[in-house]
Specification:
The protein has helices spanning 2-41, 55-61, 71-86, 124-127, 150-166, 199-204, 231-234, 247-262, 286-301, 307-316, 321-327, 333-346, 354-364, 391-400, 416-420, 426-432, 451-459, 501-519, 531-538, 560-563, and strands spanning 46-48, 136-140, 170-173, 270-274, 277-284, 376-380, 441-448, 469-471, 475-480, 524-526, 541-543, 574-577, 579-581. The chain has 593 residues and is of the alpha/beta class. Helix 5 (150-166) packs across helix 9 (286-301).
């Protein structure tokens, strides 16, 4: 009797075990099948790089790929990645409310919860007072590039940061003093109320030019009025005095760099004595940064024989040891740049000053845009780009529409409806076939330097009974624009250096607000002709935290996984939130280019 009971108990345990395995398998298959169906029936909210449209299936499929001893770790990693990016995204990161100051949500172009605050624990110069941490310095002098827009200046900063970290140098920013800049009150980014010595005097001022008001002597100048320079880059180093060098001394060396690059020479280096140490300093402006990168640094980064240098570089940029090992195995150029871009975004390289964050937050809250729910965004860049970089794209577009001669083109720009074609018609098929009883309203933020014309184009599109715009046959869209301004200019340098510094500052805030709203959207539509498109893409990338990055997927005989169709058979190093290119090149250049 006792023996019979023991056998019965064992048999029941086996049965229960089999049932449990079946239930778990069914649950995983159902979940992944649902993700697969979801991916086929609506536009994805995040694409994988470089094979964009396989993102959902790639994330889902990795859960069952590992051997049994590694399954738990892989599932944890994949689940966190999947849940994090398949959910609708909002401008405000809800998880951050429990952790920190709400204003931090407006200090960077990425959600604060996505930033890595542990980097300082891994950098040697953050752990001790390394005497040699300031021996090698790259100095960015942004004044010459100040004539360019936000995107160009931010890209030059990113490119300089990438080069400095690769070369093992601290990076400092040397802004021009007032006598060396054409901008009133010391910065191309204007002057906030915080810059003035007497706030009450500023508030009561009735004139048209704030340059007559007294400024704080120690308030940041130039680019430093916009960006808070990261200690990841500066290492806490100070600008070398270098035998009483003045700004003009450094500027003369910067101007001479061009001849060095044209003759195939490395940039000129200045040796500065600091006590018993020698500091080697390279001053570069935005143009010289691009020349140095293209001629000398980019070939080094892409040299597959320099694995050791690549490992050290990516650690200095904020990677952990595992990520560094993943990076040095990458061979495709696009994957290398995506990995670096995602790492720079996570490291918080671009961080705005507190007054910028405060005023951007105030401006964004005036927009008719819910900050706690998802929205999409479109960037329509026209203006001066129509005569320069965008010109060939405009010509190509109208040629594709059957217009042979420029004189016949209906407009000198690509119509707004061309941007809207990037939404698929899957939802409409479901709607008209009765699978979807009501089309939900899609909120789309439009940032443009030509709002009057774009609004006229939207007015000509079909309208629903509730006043929404009908796109792709059934999609109900509500287009949202930033509040209008008394200042008709949209570009920070319109009017040159004579523009009042406070007027310039308000343009600055409007532009950064646009950039932030575009970057944090669910789906973004834009292009790489504009510097904005490249900055936005960099900050929409995120590293793939799967331990299988770069590993070939395993085919399991008889398993449902083998029946799924994957465009790629390896895990990508980075993912990008839904980024749709309206026209032009489909592949983004290196970060900061």
């Amino acid at each position: 009797m006792n023996g019979s009971n023991k056998r019965s108990s064992s048999e029941w345990k086996v049965v229960l075990l089999l049932i449990s395995v079946a239930v778990i398998s069914c649950g995983v298959t159902t979940t992944l099948s649902a993700l697969h169906v979801n991916n086929n029936n609506r536009a994805a909210h995040i694409y994988a790089t470089p094979s964009d449209h396989q993102q959902h299936r790639r994330l889902a499929a990795t859960e069952e790929e590992e051997e049994e001893d590694n399954t738990s770790a892989q599932q944890t990693s994949t689940i966190s990645l999947t849940s994090k990016f398949n959910e609708k995204r909002s401008f405000l990161d809800p998880s951050w409310k429990e952790w920190g100051d709400a204003l931090v949500q407006f200090e960077t172009l990425v959600s604060p919860a996505e930033l890595d605050f542990t980097i300082s624990r891994r950098l040697p110069w953050e752990q001790d007072d390394s005497p040699d941490k300031c021996d090698e310095i790259l100095v960015l002098m942004p004044e010459y590039f100040a004539r360019n827009g936000h995107g160009s200046q931010l890209n030059s900063y990113v490119l300089a940061a990438m080069m400095a970290t690769y070369l093992g140098k601290a990076m400092l920013v040397l802004d021009a003093p007032q006598k060396n800049t054409k901008y009133p009150n010391g910065s191309m980014f204007g002057c906030p109320v915080d810059a003035f010595k007497d706030r009450k005097e500023f508030e009561q001022f009735k004139g048209n030019n704030h340059k007559h008001l007294e400024m704080k002597e120690d308030f940041p100048m130039g680019m430093s009025r916009l960006l808070k320079h990261s200690t990841l880059l500066s290492r806490g180093c100070k600008m070398p005095t270098c035998s009483s060098f003045t700004y003009d001394s450094w500027e003369a060396i910067r101007k001479a760099q061009r001849e060095h690059f044209l003759n195939g020479l490395p940039p000129r280096e200045v040796n500065c004595e600091d006590g018993d140490r020698i500091q080697r300093v390279i001053p570069l402006g935005g143009e010289e940064v691009r020349q140095f990168f293209e001629a000398q640094v980019q070939p080094l980064i892409l040299d597959e024989t320099k694995k050791r240098e690549a490992y050290k570089w990516i650690i200095r940029l904020g990677a952990n040891a595992h990520e560094a090992q993943v990076f040095i195995k990458l061979t495709k150029e696009a994957e290398i740049w995506d990995f670096v871009s995602a790492l720079m975004a996570r490291s918080g390289i671009i961080k705005f000053q507190p007054w910028i964050a405060r005023d951007v937050a105030q401006f964004i809250r005036q927009i008719d845009l819910p900050l706690n729910s998802g929205y999409d965004a479109i960037h329509v860049r026209r203006g001066d780009k129509l005569e320069t970089e965008s010109r060939k794209e405009v010509v190509a577009y109208w040629h594709s529409q059957g217009y042979d001669r420029v004189q016949q083109f209906p407009t000198n720009y690509i119509p707004f409806r061309h941007y809207l074609r990037l939404w698929d018609s899957t939802d409409c098929e479901n709607y008209w076939n009765g699978f979807q009883t009501q089309a939900t309203t899609r909120l789309v933020y439009v940032a443009t330097d030509d709002p009057t014309t774009v609004k006229e184009e939207i007015a000509k599109l079909p309208k629903g009974s509730d006043g929404t715009t009908i796109v792709a046959g059934c999609k109900k869209v509500k287009f949202i624009f930033a509040p209008s301004s008394e200042d008709s200019a949209f570009h920070i340098n319109d009017g040159g250096g004579k523009v009042d510094c406070y007027v310039r500052y308000k343009r600055n805030i409007r532009a950064i607000a646009d950039l932030m709203v575009l970057t944090k959207s669910d789906t973004f539509v834009g292009e790489f002709v504009s510097n904005w498109g490249r900055i936005i893409r960099l900050n929409r990338l995120i590293l793939n935290d799967s331990p299988l990055v770069g590993e070939r997927k395993k085919e399991i005989s008889g398993n449902w996984l083998k029946k799924s169709s994957f465009a790629e058979d390896t895990e990508p190093p980075a993912f990008i939130r839904d980024f749709r290119v309206a026209f032009g090149e489909l592949i983004s250049p290196p970060p900061g280019w």
